[in-house]
Structure formats: structure tokens, C-alpha cells
């Protein structure tokens, strides 16, 4: 098997360094994505106001229009970032680069998306009191 068929880098040391960078890049992507989702939640809460301000129903679900934004925007942001991470995983895998860190970052992004959906919907729709 020729080197040009398998990989575009001729130097094995450069290939090794490129492969070793994938773990750092994937971790950085996940951490920055998580920070972006948390920042979007905080920004929406600052712009819209507190979560419990408009809710007068103490015994059940309380659903208002501004609370939908708290759930939808961060969850959609997290979903888009998870799909981008999955696409990055595919592109790295197709180039025969070390792709497992990106796969773990994709798993983390799907867990973050689920946690964001569950957490923000619980905060927005359920009034505790």
C-alpha cells in the first residue's frame, strides 16, 4: 500500500503529531460548546428575566411564551453543535486520522443536548413552591 493512498503526510512523525492533536481538539470543541450553551442560557435569562417571575400557578405546570425561549434556543444550539461534531467525526474518520476522541466528543455533545433539554424544560415549566 502506497503512502499516498493511505495518508497525505509522508513523514511518520508529522502524522503522529497530527493524530495526537485530535484528542486536544475534540476536548476543546466539547468544552467550548458546553460553555456556549451555558452562556446562551445565562444570556436568555438576563434578557428575558428570571424564571419564576410570571408564574402564578404554584400547583402544576406553568408555561409562558418567554419560557419557551429558555428551552428551545439552548437546546437547538446544543443539537446543532452535536451534529457538527458528528460531521467532524466522519470527516476525520474518512481521512484515516485518529477519530475516537471526536466520537467521544460526539457522545458528550448528545449527552449535553439531552441534559440541556431536560434541565431547561424542568426549570422553565415546573414551578416549585
UniProtKB/TrEMBL annotation:
Transmembrane segments: 29-51, 71-90, 102-126
Species, as recorded: Dietzia aerolata
Name of the protein in question: Integral membrane protein
Keywords for this protein: Membrane, Transmembrane, Transmembrane helix
KW Membrane (keyword) present: yes
